[in-house]
Each structure stands twice: as C-alpha cells, then as structure tokens.
Amino acid sequence: MLQQQAYRLFYSEIENWQLAKDKYSDLKASVSKRLEFGDFGIDVVCNPARIRSTMAEVQRKLEKMRHLPNNSQAAAAVDSSNDSCFLCSDRRPKEQKSIVVGDFEVLVNPYPIFPIHFTIVYKKHIPQQILPYFDEYLYFARNLTNFAVFFNGANCGASAPFHLHFQAAEKRYFNVVGDYSTLPQQYFEVVERDDTLTLTSIRNYLRKVFVISTSDPLRAKAVLERHFMQYIDDNMINIICCYEDGQYRIFVFPRQTFRPSQFFDDNPNKRLAISPASVEMSGCFVTIFREHFDRLDANEIVDIYSQIS
C-alpha cells in the first residue's frame, strides 16, 4: 500500500511541480561508465540534476569546504544558511507534497541521484540518528519492497545532518544488493550466525561491508549495537536496507573519514569533488563535474575506498 502511494506521489510531483519535473528530466543528460574489478563493478556517474545553484556558486562553496573540518556537518553549514532547513515543513517549497507515515513524511527528492528518489523526513527538526528510529527505518524497508532505504551518518554523507531523514531508491541501482546474491562464496565470511540471524562480511571488495540478514527486527538492532556502536556514536556509518524473501538485508558500512584527500588537493587538475555516502559505498560514484567524471578511474576508486572505509 505504501509503495503504491509512493509511486503515485512521484508521478504526481513530476507532473505538477516544475522543479521536480525539470530535475528528473535533467537526469537524462547524465553520463555513466562502469569500472570492472573481476567479479564486481563500480559505476561512475556525472549527474547535472544534483546541482542546487549556479556552477559559480557551487565552485565557491566547494572551495570553502576544502578548508573546513572533514565531515558532513561542516559541509552542511556552508551549503545552507544557519536559520534554514530544507527538510523542515515550513521551509519546503509550497508545491512539494508528502505522504504522512506516523512521525515521518515521504517526499520526492527534487535533486535526484536516481530516476525515482525519495527522502523520508522526520516531522520534527532533530539531529540525524539511527538507533532510536531503527524500527521505523526497517518499517520503510519492509513496506517499500522495490526499494533500498538508506541512511547516512551525520559525519559521513548526510545532506541534512541536523534533521533526521532516510532516503529510498529502487534497489536495482545498488550494486551491493545485486553483488550479495551473485558474488562467489569465497567473498563471504560469517561473523555471527544462529537460528534467526546471520552477520556476514564481504572480503576483497575494496571497501568494508557487513550484511545482517534476519526476519527479526529486534535481533537486527541488537547486532547493530553490539558490533558497530563506535561508528554509530561517531556518526560514521552508512546503512542500506532492503526486504527480500521475508528477510531484512542490512548492509552496514563503517567509515574512517568522510572525504578522501583528493577533495582537498591544492592542484585543481588532481582535485575530485567526491563526498562518499551510502550511494558511493554501494558501488556508484556520483559527481556533477564532467572533468572529474573523466578523471575517476579504477586506481582512484581503489585509493578513495582505502581512505574512507
């Protein structure tokens, strides 16, 4: 039911809300390439739909970010004024509609990465956090079965780290979801297993990723707390969840840092405006600059993952 409502909202918004209509149309101008690493691949995308302002303004903000602390909260302070939050209901465009689900609202993301992209926003302005709202997070995964629901920690990719939110996009765009089903068995190592839950790590995968597979939300939360509490406390965690075959599949990416050294390089010919979050950890690097898209090769991908993961 929720999934049907979400699709109806999406098609209504791109029909009736000009900003959404334009930005989803802009996605058609995206270019992509795939870098192969044996049994799996990483996608790289140049996506003009992510641009929120003029290119000159984007460049000015990026230059300022290069000299700030390496976390999402510092980036967000540059990217918006101190007294505004684009997720708060009184600050949103009047044309933007929503689906109310308990204490959350489902919104069409007007600056999309994917052809259908939602933001799931808490009604109150509270900081980005996962554990107190993990049940709700899993609820959305279970009721949006075509989708992966993802969470970015406040220091490693959240676009609005001061306002609790999740995001959702169709799971077919998340390489890690497909790789979990297709990679040879030697990539997987069982960390913990019992009758109701399996915690697995994926090895030799460029970045660290753990997969919780269970039908029991309480067990999933307990394992998340037991193994990843340090990263949760530090807001240095990305999580992607989908619901398949009666199981929650929760992909957990513990993080070392937000942005790689390439973001801060003094040489503009080596600089890369890459801010990895759940989408990048899933296997899709997104940039708005064509020259950065062209520069991102297999060696850069390996190096970036080695720094941040």
Fold and architecture overview:
It is a single chain. With 309 residues, this protein is of the alpha+beta class. It has one domain (2-174, 253-259, 270-308). Helix content is 32%, strand content 25%. The protein is built from ten helices and 13 strands. Strands 3-4-5-7-6-11-12-10-9-8 form a ten-stranded antiparallel β-sheet, sandwiched between helices. The longest helix is centred in the C-terminal third of the chain and has 17 residues, at 217-233. It is globular, with a radius of gyration of 19 Å.
- The structure class reads alpha+beta
Number of strands: 13
Could you say how many structural domains there are in total?
1
- How do the helices and strands follow one another from N- to C-terminus? HHEEHHEEEHEEHEEEHEEHEHH
Give the strand line-up of the largest sheet. 3-4-5-7-6-11-12-10-9-8
> If you average the pLDDT, what whole number results?
92
Which percent band covers the strand fraction?
A: 15-25%
Shape: globular
Main sheet: strands, sense, barrel: 10 strands, antiparallel
First and last CA, distance: 37 Å
What is the overall number of helices? 10
Helix content: 25-40%
Gyration radius, in Å: 19 Å
Low-confidence stretches: none
